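so im writing up the methods section and need the Superoxide dismutase [Cu-Zn] record in one place, dumping it here so i stop losing it
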Amino acid sequence: MTVPHPAPTRPCTREPTPRAGSSRRRGAALLAGAAVLAVAGCTTDNDPPESTTGLPSVFTGSPAPLTTGETPGEPGHSPGGNFVTAGFADPEGDPAGTVTFVERAGFLEIQARVSGLEPGFHGFHVHENGTCEADSTAPDRNETGDFLSAGGHLQLGDRTGVPASGDLTSIHVRDDGRGLLVTSTDAFTLADLNNNGRGRAVVVHAGPDNFGNIPTRYTLPDGAAVPDRQTLTTGDAGPRVACAVVE
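--- predicted struct ---
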């Protein structure tokens, strides 16, 4: 079998120097041709460029991918990695949405979707105990109500002030009864949520959370401290209307 030889590469050539008396038009054409040669260079398909210095950097309009995975889809952190998800239920046991905690580089990303709630802002917290029992008794045995056995807002270590470790951004519910929240926190970890296998409750409240932000210029009867204990421990967010156990 005869193997065909590749076609020879045309050598780089220079345009001939125009003779005296050539027209201006021909001179302009030769100058244009010289410019093209200068841009293209005198290399063949088999010759590497002499230098890559001075070439502009490539700009795509997007930052380089991160390996820490701060947003879904980035390398290092994707669904199937370090995350936990659970479903909300209302006091009647009907589904009321989902909540997902995803481990990122030094913090947790939280995405909550809720449905069937009253329009407006709703307090949203991680609570101490991994229970979601309707019409249950609070751990201090002082009152009974929906999801009260979940205990108070999560506090870790020696923390006692507000916002609590488990306080999260409030969820805004639209007129159609649905809400979406994406937020983050570095106040606890997935291990804190697991709680040695006992889990934690994630609770949505009937009203907004004021995070204890009651100015001291307001007064209470008998000169009691402002804000009072109820505000400091609950944010005055009202009854618990949805609950999920994460572990």
